[in-house]
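Box 4.2: Ligand-aware structure prediction
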Amino acid sequence: MPLPATYGYSPHPVPLPATPLVYSRPAPIIARYVMSVLVIVGALWGDEAKGKLVDVLAGDADLNVRYCGGHNAGHTVAADGKTFKFHLIPSGILHENCTAVISGGMVVCPKTLLDELDNLHANAKTTGRLRISKSAHVLFPYHRLLDRLEEEYRGARRVGTTSRGVGPAYQDKVARFGIRMAEFVDPERFPERLRIALAMKNRTIQLYGEEPLEYEPLLDEYQEYAERVRPFVGEVEREVNEAVRAGKRILFEGAQGTMLDLDHGTYPFVTSTYPTAGGACLGTGLAPGQIDNVLGVCGAYATRVGSGPFPSELCGSLADRIREEGREFGTTTGRPRRCGWLDLVAVRHASRISGFTSLAVTRLDVLSGFDQVGLCAAYDIEGTRVDWVPTDMAELEKAEPLWETMPGWSGDLSLCRKEDELPAQATEFLRRIEAFTETPISIVSVGARREETIILRPDLLW
Ligand code: IMP
């Protein structure tokens, strides 16, 4: 489905050149001529409204592939007058002709998955286009229990996880105790795999002084889930690879954001996987050279849920005002989000790590009505001006923001459909973000609805 005409462009299909491209170095084995692989990455701590952009862009996509995380993520999509909440299934499933893919980089809670499928069925949506990788890991109740026990053990240094068990499920994956989808849906193998995994996990649970979980009821419950999940499970990596080679349009969607990346985020206050663009390759078998464009997504201001350093955080009435106007409460946990001005240093860090070819700036409308708006342009760390993100969290915890302020704007931005309809101050604000982060802005979001979107540079997307 093409984007509405209000976006002012018709991106699909991209014509093939008449003659093959001439390469100055040996031609790659896979020669493709269309820009068809777009990766969407959160620039900061998640909740940048990636879900809305995925919903807007998935209308043009053949495949919508989620490459990391589990049901710690969440977004709400309004479609056909109904509201859908997604934690696992890529929202591209709502678009006809778009196949939704849960990749091997994800951990899947079967109960949440089935709830989402039931909700889609209840709203007369077809789910036949859902595919789940055989190598995705399955999340069990013992993961959720261990998430809570580990957080309690950390005490003051708790991560502030979503308590969904996602971290412990990835721990099992790395420790090679995890149960993959292929084993989960195999009635022969699953009982034994669960027996061994549970016995091992129960030892840890008892070390924390808790009662062990019982095997039989768990097996019965999860065997029922497996029956329902089985039809969706397949050789997804091969299918994605073939789709890329066939020049299909593929939207890869990360969960969370760069500053929650296990290696490049604010460790240990991070999630347990790789939300950066490289995660798309790790999670799906996509080769790095097959990525055409990377769209980084940041809000016009910054938010964070959970613990950990957040140098541009605001407190008091300013933070409360942003939280209220932006309705900044977690989709998954309902927790109030910490709010601050946009951290340009962190967005540039994210852009460099993931190679953003462009940025989407969301929630510009929320900042309407402020006399002045702020941007964090450097950190003061014990008297030294630092304009990069330090790797050592002890340093980042000491960082004080060095602000740039810009004149604010007013008016209802959600009515704007073209850049020249935005107030001049808002445009100046966008230009400053581009200049600092060295990344052009391709999309500006001015409201929650699909049509409240301004596409500035369609050429930087597909
Ligand atoms: P976990 O992913 O549940 O282990 O939580 C680890 C950290 O990531 C915590 O600070 C969470 O608040 C944060 N987190 C996980 N998922 C999301 C998300 O979808 N949006 C924002 N923060 C998230």
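In the box above, the bound molecule is inosinic acid. The first strand starts at residue 37 and ends at 42.
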